[in-house]
Write a structure and sequence with these properties.
single chain; alpha/beta
Length: 522
Amino acid sequence: MDMQNSRRDFLKSSAALAAVAALQPLTRVLGEQTERSPVAGKKIVGIQIGPESFVDEGVGPLLDWLQEKAAVNTLFLTAFTYGQGFAGRMGGGRLYPGHGKLASEGGGFHGGYFAKQHSSFFERTVLKDTRAPDLGDRDILAEVIAAAGKRGMKVFGGLEDRWDKAFDVPGLKECAEVDLRGRSSFDPARSVSTCVFNPNVRAFWTGLAADLCSSYAVDGILFLNERSGPHMNVLGITPFRKGVGDTSHVACFCEHHRRAALEQHIDFDRAKQGYERLYAYVQAAIKDQRPSDGYYVTYQQILLDFPEIVAYDQLCNFGKLRIWDEVRSMVRSIHKELPIVFHVEQTISFNPFTRASLDYDHLAGRADFLKPATYNNCAGERYADFIGNIGATIFRDMPREEVYSFLNHLLNYEGMPKFGELATAGLPPDYVARETRRALAGVKGRCGILSGIDISIPVGPDSRRATPDDSYAATMAALEAGAQGVVLSRKYAEMRRENLEGAGRAVEASGRGASGRVASGR
């Protein structure tokens, strides 16, 4: 690898990206993008896996097992994260899956970049040193790429926008979001989140993507960026939230966002006032202080009084998606045919507000594949939490069972369990099929769909836990619905092997074995 040429190409591409981004209006970034046909070839059978699993179980033996028993032909190997959803060993009271090491045995999790970091790609950002110390000097990414290639398996590098407890990262403090009350997320009591309009953050992601695809022979990149906008955050109806609580930490309201709002002719101060009104409305609701016109009508009145609320929420979506676009453009400038996969959070299925603001038609042209999180078993718990939270505010005047029925009609859900059994029953495999078909219809052939399959995703003690039959049925549902592949999720370290074997049986039964190539890879 000629690192000097790579550096020159990177700097040239960075300058071009900055010029293009400055000229792109909001409607362009949220609207149509360059169209590409979906990647041809056999079905992708992928698995999300953290680097620790290869350290604990051995590169060769683990690859052989995944290929032979789970029909895996593509590894989505986490290369960057400070979160433990896609990397790290099992711990914290989670059920041991029967393989690998527990966190108490293998050491605590720190996170960061699990690859060799080349400084020339990070000259335009203060985030210059994010190398993960977890594995020492071992370059597990290079080891896995070499071993997977000998077995005909592909390796996608996974980059996740998570900075949980990353307080020792130089420069991160000046990249942190600022909430509605002017507080920085760089706070030991919280998980750090970075501002999508901060130029240091944008330069970091393009630099990281450039480093990864220039320095390693990856076959593609998976980018995970689960960010709910301020509208959902202030209402307290974001994913994984148990109860509404204090929603004043809604973000971001920093000076970078102020400038971005000005460029899009959005009144920043009016938007902030609107979010303060929504915050007060939510806090009154959870104290059971009913407004005279009722909860839903009052919510609508606030939106009519402050149209800047929705405009500002879309501005924040714009910032998130612009990073998607810049990452993709950077990768394209280095390797024109390297496929890009973007993860789409599960709320795009059961939250009608997310469906409306982040729909597949807008997302289609910005990736080769979208990976919607069609996780049916844990979705029962997640959907129940969502109904509980939205039923505590906007729909507080309705019984929760009626909110559930109403949403099922809106979302075209059929064959659903009773509301009281939602968490314990999970959602049926038909949910996976329906969401896969909806995604395919939404992208209109402009990219492929890789359905995310729930393999032992952790849930509460009283919620449904996936079985091998569940894994078989969900995988089969996605493939029969027409997905270009599946991604077994969230991470191998938490998956029970018998559940993986259930998914592997579905792949074999579908007539699409694990030896298929990933077209557009190298």
